[in-house]
Design a protein that fits this description.
Helices cover about 45% and strands about 35% of the residues. The chain has a 4-stranded antiparallel sheet. It has a domain of about 110 residues: Bacterial Protein-export protein SecB (Roll). A hairpin with a 2-residue loop joins β3 and β4. By secondary structure, it is an alpha+beta fold.
Length: about 170
């Protein structure tokens, strides 16, 4: 009897709290190209230069379910020729309940990509190595700092826009 009462009490306490659940992680799309192969393997050219591009997209699937897709593109060039291009779209379905809009947006822009990034990093590393190139390891990314910078820029542009109207 006491267990039932405690269980009911815990359920009531949790109803007002924000809840986050990871429902699924999956690779949505991958691509690897080595346009200069096989000549690129014989080249004694300069140092490789790797350019990294990140983006993310959030799609609401239901009242409290969201798909977050983290896109990572690594382009390696030697001199002016592309040695390889590796791209992965790592996705996850996250359940969020009890968050206010700013809190929900912050979780979707920081926590969710932090969960997805190690999976994307592994896929990129495997593709590059399987493509015949030396291992490429993506460094950790601070999504909290990126989100804070995005919010600062948004606030600056809003303030500039308001100042222009005055």
């Amino acid at each position: 009897m006491a267990e039932t009462q405690n269980g009911a009490g815990n359920g009531q306490a949790q109803q007002g709290q924000a809840q986050l659940s990871l429902q699924k992680i999956y690779t949505k799309d991958v691509s690897f190209e080595a346009p200069g192969a096989p000549q690129v393997f014989q080249s004694q050219g300069g140092q490789p230069n790797v350019e990294l591009n990140l983006s993310q997209r959030v799609t609401q699937l239901g009242e409290s379910a969201f798909e977050v897709v983290l896109s990572v593109t690594a382009t390696c060039k030697i001199e002016d020729k592309t040695a390889y291009l590796a791209e992965v779209h790592q996705a996850g379905i996250f359940g969020l309940a009890g968050f206010d809009a700013p809190g929900r947006d912050a979780v979707l822009a920081t926590y969710c990509p932090n969960v997805l990034f190690p999976y994307a990093r592994q896929v990129v590393s495997d593709m590059v190595q399987n493509g015949g190139f030396p291992p490429f390891f993506l460094q950790p990314i601070n999504f909290d700092a990126l989100y804070a910078e995005q919010q600062r820029r948004r606030a600056d542009s809003t303030n500039q826009g308001a100042g222009a109207n005055v």
